[in-house]
Amino acid sequence: AQVISAEFVKSSVETEACPSDGSPEFALVGRSNVGKSSLLNSIVKRKKLALTSKKPGKTQCINHFRINDSWYLVDLPGYGYASAPNELRKDWNKFTKDYVLNRSTLVSVFLLIDASIPAKKIDLEYASWLDQNQVPMTIIFTKCDKRKKKKNGGKHPEENVQDFQDLISEYFEAVPPWIMTSSVTNQGRDEILLHMSQLRNY
Ligand code: GTP
Ligand code: MG
Predict the structure, then answer these.
(1) pTM above 0.90?
(2) Which of 5, 56, 170, 197 is most buried, most CB within 10 Å of its CB?
(3) What strands, in cross-sheet order, belong to the sheet with 137-142?
(4) CB of 122 within 8 A of CB of 31?
(5) Are 50 and 67 a contacting pair, CB within 8 Å?
């Protein structure tokens, strides 16, 4: 599984406006600032294909990127971004939820969880919302390169990952597949590509 070509196709703010050629796609979802756009860049080995920022709230649309002229990676706005204006936040919620529930070519959602901090309530809520709606998902732990810090709860990424898995096993009948990643070291890149190719059946 290799990325030979990757190109930005379009930004949409409703499911109906997304590309309609029927190619399979994978969407990156997760809290604002968790590293969705950075992970996309890491997967395609392009530093600036998707726009990233230190400040949460950078990605505001459903962004389709065409890979190897045969499937899509989709970068979405994050949830849980408290300082976005209320109206804007409602809108994001509305179209991203609609996209996740109704996009027929969506093969699997990749739910990103920050491994450098303890699990957040909103992540557990989002994971169980996906589960309840039977949306196929893979859990991607991000920022696994970060060292433990007192202000981040004083745990190693490996410990936070274990804690999160313990928590979701209470919500889920079966824990979804999961991959540990870093967009700084490109950890997990090949594993993600292999997993996506298995899910697409080619
Ligand atoms: P929104 O578009 O606002 O929802 O955020 P996002 O999830 O797309 O996050 P983005 O990729 O823009 O990254 C947010 C910040 O986290 C940036 O400062 C990145 O450099 C940093 N970051 C992302 N991934 C990693 C990682 O694997 N390791 C480290 N150390 N930092 C990362
Ligand atoms: Mg983003």
Answers:
(1) yes
(2) 56
(3) 6-12, 62-67, 71-75, 25-30, 106-114, 137-142, 178-180
(4) yes
(5) no
β-bridge pairing 137-142 and 6-12: unpaired
Residues with Cβ within 8 Å of residue 58, at least 6 apart in sequence:
32, 37, 51, 52
3-44 pLDDT tens trace:
999 999 999 999 999 999 999 999 999 999 999 999 999 999
Distances (CA, A) of 163 to 67, 82, 85, 166: 34, 25, 32, 5
The pLDDT tens digits for 40-49 are 999 999 999 9
Dist. CA 48–CA 62, nearest whole Å: 17
Contacts of 127 (CB under 8 A, 6+ apart): 111, 137, 139, 168, 171, 172
- Report how far ligand 2's centroid is from the alpha carbon of 37 (Å): 4
Kindly state if the Cβ of 63 falls inside 6 Å of ligand 1. Answer: no
- Evaluate: CB of 80 within 6 angstroms of ligand 1: no
In angstroms, the Cα distances linking 171 to 118, 129, 168, 181 are 17, 10, 5, 23
Topology (CATH level 3) of domain 6-200: Rossmann fold (3.40.50)
ipTM of the complex: 0.99
**Which of 77, 75, 60, 71 is CA-nearest to residue 6?**
71
Q: Which residues pair with 108 in a beta bridge?
A: 26
